[in-house]
Amino acid sequence: MSTDRLREPLTQVLGARSAAPLAAMGLETVGALVGHYPRRYGDPGTVSDLARLALGEHVTVVARVARATVRQMRSRGGAMLQAVVTDGRHDLSLTFFAKRAGVLRHHEDRLRPGRMGLFTGVVGAYRGERQLTHPDYLIVGVDADDEESALVEASRPIPIYPASAKAPSWRIQRAVRTVLDPLTEDDVPDPLPPGVSAQRGYGTRLAALRDVHEPYDEAQWRRGRERLRFEEAFVLQAALAQRRARAAAQEATARPRPAAGVPSVLADFDAALPFTLTRGQQYVGDEIATELARARPMQRLLQGEVGSGKTVVALRAMLQVVDAGGQAALLAPTEVLAAQHARSLEDMLGPLAHAGRLGGAEHGTRVTLLTGSLGAAARKQALLDAASGTAGIVVGTHALLGEHVQFADLGLVVVDEQHRFGVEQRDALRAKARTTPHLLVMTATPIPRTVAMTVFGDLETSVLSEVPAGRSPVTTVVVPAGNEQWNARIWARVREEVDAGHRAYVVCPRIHPDEPAARGADPDAYDLPDLLDTLEPDGAGEREPLRAVLETAEQVRAQPALAGIEVGVLHGQMPPAEKDAAMAAFADGRAPVLVATTVVEVGVNVPEATVMVVFDSDRFGLSQLHQLRGRVGRGTAPGLCLLVSTAEPGTPAAARVETMAETTDGFRLAQVDLELRSEGDVLGASQSGRSSSLRLLRVVKDADVIAEAREAAAPVVAADPDLRGSPVLAAAIAERLDPEREEFLDRT
Ligand code: ADP
Ligand code: MG
Q: Which parts of the sequence belong to the Helicase C-terminal domain (predicted)?
């Protein structure tokens, strides 16, 4: 088999002049060009009657050439070819202009009187006569064998390609034909195993390429697209199946639960739990317990609404590992969250977290916080606790991945909120253990099924759908910005809540008023990437500047309604100690109003918080707003979320915030979010603005295709994990999943 033809440079096949504008579009090889699929197909129209040609209409007529003459034009200079075609009763003029008569000779040569042809163009008029200027045409006996085949040719759907000014669609079409026509089956290797193709009734890959580029009818291009789309999904799912298989082949240390009667931190913890686990927590807990007891690494994604109680599930998993003599690491995306996790784990464990200390339980463990901002002495102690095994649970951020951090026996890694931990971090942690640690990834961002199957396809998924009983509902209201009365009402409501002993968050998209909304300035910059995605389509440039934390805090402090109330500030650029202090003052009510960036988006848990005011809410993504809103209504008092919006009615931004007000169902919001965003956003920021390597497959719309491909790929990979017997598939995986795509696959 030869793949050489597909690698041939277009400069060689088409010539430098034709290849240059294609290269500018990233199409440099035959393979790239035949992989440049039509975006849609134009209607070829039907054959028109010469008697009824309407001005301005795009028509195709069948007629016989009556005469054709080239002449110099005295008035304008240049030359002109005038032909007349006829159906026997009605005539139509065809006109071609050129600088020199020579250029027109080849038309004259083709348009010989008596020949039949098909003529296509837009109907114009000259001195009251209907005419076509520079029509496309096909001559029977020259371009087509007979009239029937000419008609067939003229009635083919017109492929419309993603094009540029220098490479218009028709020119791309011509180039595609030039490279596609001479290709043979051997030139176009097929990543779909023959069995899979046969089962689905597909032809070869080459046939599918012809179907999409040179179809005779709609059914044909649809067939071709379906096949190529399935192929994309199949290659992706095969890659994921391989990855799962590789992970499953790794060795892990089995961490079974202790036998009944044997002292167990987990058993003690369960006995002291002040509430009953929800059925979901129980079920997922059992799933995890079984997997931890195996000598193969668990690879599990735990999804659950904000407040669904994922932390308890994770803690119980960690305790099982601790009971089995191992350690667990909990990774949080920010220092604020790591510190909070460490605190809440200690709170939940109570005396069980103080093993070996005065007042500690006999059987227990220790929770150690290890972050980049610890003082030298504290850091040394934390490192020691991790390395000696004194700390059964080590909580931290990326600092945990530092070279100096050693574990005595790392058995489980829990990642809270996946989106900031890539495969490298995961590998770095694995490298710290003798065997591959078990992995539990938790996310409160609901992930629609198809995205889970694509982006997180190498993880098994569990869902906590039930929220513990007694949770309060959150009411969401959209507040138009710039309305004085509404504005006053916001602060009056905040006052009422504070007076009732509650807390209020005020969220702004940026820190300083003059700060450009750029990535990277804020180490906790949860706000910006999502925000930037939503900024672009709405033409943010012309709009009011985004609200900033520091400025807004001043305005809030100046509100008469809030006189005497302490207002705190929290953002990612504050030193860690200040952040902690701000959170603590908010949590215990000394500063019951907190003006913050979206640092508070993930996981922050202050049950007394009942109100959240989000400025510029129309600039946030839905999933992000959902996360933010999850910060209120975590206690017994009902929550209120006020979305201040500057969006014009009818815009996608307005639709987003209205959707927020309509539903609290995270899965529905995630689905709407996907629909309102581009595919590039779904696949990750690095993909947006570039041609995604998914050409036909749409993660949102093609759920069925993805599911079918997953089913079809599983047995193929199971039978031959290294795909030695399917070299084309293996090559397709290697080629299509370039490092950048691997990265998105790994964003877990
Ligand atoms: P998540 O991390 O999923 O957002 P948490 O684990 O932080 O949610 O749980 C939110 C709150 O609910 C915590 O205060 C936790 O103690 C409490 N909680 C968890 N499970 C239950 C349960 N089964 N019954 C009552 N409260 C629960
Ligand atoms: Mg949580």
A: 527-680
